[in-house]
Amino acid sequence: QVQLVESGGGLVQAGGSLRLSCAVSGSFYRFNAVGWYRQAPGKQRDLVAEIISEDITNYPDSVKGRFTISRDDAKNTLYLQMNSLKPEDSGVYYCHANVRYQGDYWGQGTQVTVSS
Question: How far apart are CA 93 and CA 6, in angstroms?
Fold first, then answer.
């Protein structure tokens, strides 16, 4: 099956930056969409960034202008660059892929904690 493995989380001060990485086992042409979701304790898992149809990007207003999603096709790796981090950005970040003819797959998550 498709495997997604996140890395790059950690502890940062408010205003700092992190770059998350997600190693993907398959080629990106097999995927309808790839992206990142965030889940804080006691909260639902919410979309923070997504690439649709290999080109179009989507961001919620809460991260727009601060987060950037990108991918490296040669390395089969998805990235999330996070700048100007706020305490409310804290949570577990999950890599996600909607796989053609199979459905949704998730990584195990990587913790991001932003201190005040």
Answer: 8
